[in-house]
Write a structure and sequence with these properties.
By secondary structure, the chain is of the alpha/beta class. It has a single domain, classed as Alpha-Beta Barrel (TIM Barrel), CATH 3.20.20.80. It has 12 helices and 9 strands. β8, α11 and β9 form a beta-alpha-beta unit. α6 packs parallel to α8. The chain is globular and about 55 Å long. The chain starts with a helix and ends with a helix.
């Protein structure tokens, strides 16, 4: 009897400890909680992260998720007669179960787009009408599948040229000219009239490119095309952008009556502009050994502090901020041949000093 009596308090103590620990975990504030009165805090995810240790971090810190690659046309629609839904469904179902918002990314892009879209059975370019019909079918199929579960879509991605030209030279412009852009928005709006539709691009703080994006969006708005927002990708670094560049971009695009979202935020510890995609299958440089130094840590901290000061200042215009990847453990910038350490969580999924500056206000 004494043995059993001794066990009871221990069991009760253990149960109390478990209860307290679980309660404490639930009460840990994340980015989504600090910014609840400002805008949703999101993150780009891969399906594998939703069943790994990253999932706890995602749920604790973020209120919105974006598929990093799973909804791009190549991965989700590899052949004309075949859709691959598994990865996209995994992400959307995770969001629905956990009451997270979802940003769809992306319906029309020049990269990660299957070649079948542009050619006929003889290997020649299809006509403009055929291309637009294929685009319509793709957008209607994908958007309709997730109607009511995805609140916003990056409809057209990176159509503006980095050089002196207005539009980027791609198969889209070669076959359909500028019209494919407005048609993509019309098709998406028809498929889900309640979805918020974005044009998404990088280097949006460079005046020359910003002016061209503004011209594109103003033209679409003037024609009555259903574009509702602009996604500023925010692939930045410790040297870019300046506060003045950033504020100017928000003010310009907001003047068109558009929502502004920062859709792919990361801040590299190396100077220079990080915008532009890495092409799948392209030979990548060998990974260099990189060290996250105290100097890098301080410079990154200061840049993150500045940009979030600006985001909060323009909270009436900024309707979302999404980090591009979860932690420094894996980021898309790894493909550039070095670790860029661009996020708020380190390779062990722990908050960096920059994190505490972002939530200190």
């Amino acid at each position: 009897m004494k043995t059993h009596l001794l066990k009871i308090p221990l069991l009760l103590a253990s149960a109390a400890f478990i209860f307290i620990s679980a309660k404490s975990f639930k009460e840990v504030k994340g980015l989504k909680d600090y910014y609840k009165k400002y805008f949703p805090m999101g993150v780009a995810v891969r399906p594998s992260e939703l069943s790994s240790e990253e999932s706890k971090l995602i749920l604790n810190e973020f209120s919105s998720i974006t598929p990093e690659n799973a909804m791009k046309m190549g991965p989700i629609h590899p052949r004309e007669d075949r859709y691959f839904w598994r990865d996209a469904d995994t992400i959307v179902n995770f969001a629905v179960r956990n009451k997270l918002k979802v940003r769809g990314h992306t319906l029309c892009w020049h990269a990660q787009t299957p070649n079948w879209l542009f050619i006929d059975s003889t290997g020649n370019n299809v006509s403009k009408d055929v291309l637009l019909q294929r685009l319509k079918s793709h957008i209607n199929t994908v958007v309709s599948r997730y109607k009511g579960k995805i609140y916003a879509w990056d409809v057209v991605n990176e159509a503006i040229a980095d050089g002196p030209e207005f539009l980027r030279k791609t198969k889209w412009t070669e076959i359909a000219g500028e019209e494919f852009i407005e048609k993509a928005f019309e098709y998406a709006h028809a498929a889900d009239p309640n979805a918020v539709l974005f044009y998404n691009d990088y280097n949006t703080e460079i005046p020359a490119k910003r002016d061209k994006i503004f011209k594109l969006l103003k033209g679409l708005k003037d024609k009555g095309v259903p574009v509702h927002g602009v996604g500023l990708q925010a692939h930045w670094s410790i040297s870019t952008p300046t506060r003045e560049e950033l504020e100017k971009s928000i003010e310009m695009f907001s003047s068109l009556g558009l929502q502004v979202q920062f859709t792919e935020l990361d801040i590299s510890v190396y100077s220079g502009r990080q915008g532009g995609q890495l092409i799948q299958g392209q030979q990548q440089p060998q990974q260099q050994k990189s060290v996250f130094t105290a100097e890098m840590e301080q410079q990154q901290l200061e840049k993150y502090k500045m940009v979030f000061d600006v985001f909060r200042k323009y909270k009436k215009n900024v309707t979302g901020v999404t980090f591009w990847n979860v932690s420094d453990k894996y980021t898309w910038l790894d493909g550039r041949g070095r670790k860029n350490f661009p996020l708020l969580f380190d390779q062990e999924l722990k908050p960096k000093k920059a994190y505490w500056e972002v939530v200190k206000f």
